[in-house]
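> @MW can you paste both from yesterday?
MW: sure, first one:
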Amino acid sequence: MPAIRAHDLEQFRNIQRLAYRCAQTIAGELKPGISEKATAALMKTWLQDHGVQDWFHQPFAWFGPRTAFKGFDGLRHLGGFNLAFYPGKTRLEEGMPFILDCAPTIGAYTADIGYSGALGANPLVERLLDDLMAHRQLIVQLVKQRRPLAEVSQAVDRLCAEQGTLPRHKAYPFEVLAHRVEKLGERQRGPSIARFGVRNLYTLTRNALLTGRRQGWSPLWSSNARSDHAPTPGLWAVEPHLGWRGVGAKFEELLVVTADDAYWLDDDLPHVRRWQRRGLSTPQVAA
């Protein structure tokens, strides 16, 4: 598998920063009474105003207990069979947690990000955001060691248990901790189905059914047997999602995996800056 060119990494970094700018901007505009659906629409408009013409998926917003994915069941969300996953009528209240998630595409480049916070003070959200720092450190540490991806995800599960949290990313389709992100073709846009972009879905499906199966790897990274293989070079959108006492928080960002190394594409992201402002030191996490 050829190495990712520096130019391509820069383009992926640019779209990821744009996605986080969108989430931060809209989060700063949230007021009591706004619905998830209206919030997702604001994000979509903001991204389109900044040049986005296509998507891996259009924006999602979850408020209150829905941030912990209460009642969500991954596979039943595929194709829109369970609408619980999609932005709904839940309205934001003071102190309520929120998660904003978007995956815009510009040209050949896609990012997939998650941004967590609360409208006002919420100590449960603050605790979960602090806990996520150890997950970010653990994931890259184990991938650098070339541990099988299933083992990395299982280590995340164990860390959740040690922290007293639940790995709510297991409520995503196929219980994924992460999924592949690929450079797309030359077309600038494509249609969407159930809020997911066809170009990105086609690329992911092609990898799942053809390239990955032939080469012995999966583009869907989970704790299950399908991910019991060495880290596959490329870009992975990684999203540890923690739940605690009916509240959820996560980050999602791109991890670069090479033949012999791994690193986060960008360290200048909101959750990283937050840890720095709080003076939190990166813990040494046991594998």
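MW: second:
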Amino acid sequence: MILDKPLEKLGGKGVFISEIEQALQSGDIDIAVHSAKDLPLELAEGTRISAVLRRSFPNDVLVTRRNEVLKGGVIGTSSTRRADGVRKLFPDTTTADIRGNVDTRLNKLAEGQYDGIILAAAGLSRLGALGDKRFDYTFISTKSLVPAPCQGIIAIQSGRDDIAELLSGVSDNDTYKCFETERAVLELLNAGCSSPVGALAEIKDGIMTLTVTKDQHTILIDSAPAEERFELVKRLVSEL
């Protein structure tokens, strides 16, 4: 409803879910489905995350008009983290705030309001937008631009025990471990929505590899058994 102000001026990521949480608390809805990266650390009283779905792409994507080479120009993003990454990866460009849903942002790019925009690969994939032939899509390495904590994860919030038990049947165990690990990074860094903090946890054969940054310039990577993930978080955050 408010598209002319930066997100941090509106109260941060919590503005995306406040009405949904109110409906959950009042009993108007039984579950709430969120993009996990939009969840504030403090959830509505009496609710919890009861399940997370298997993670999709965690990457960010640079979207440009078809067959146009990005030389300088303006890249649209509403994220401080992405803006910091753009300045590092594309130093000859500038950034400008962009708001609206994915379709709105893509149309603004097609109209020439921006020379490129940065979006989450997971959202583009889920909407089928990666097949839009108006654009070229460049996936950005998660080691070059560390994703927002929990990017690419769908989280399901509930308050009732019986519903939480049902939801446990669709929850992905490894993704849940990554979800809570990346949120632990946010908590230890006391990071708000306007922070450029990035965190990505990945599990393979019981070993978690964690990538963290608080400024998109100093990036630390280390591994440990998944059951030692919170010790891993503390160690890496202390070294930032």
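> thanks! The first helix runs from residue 18 to 26.
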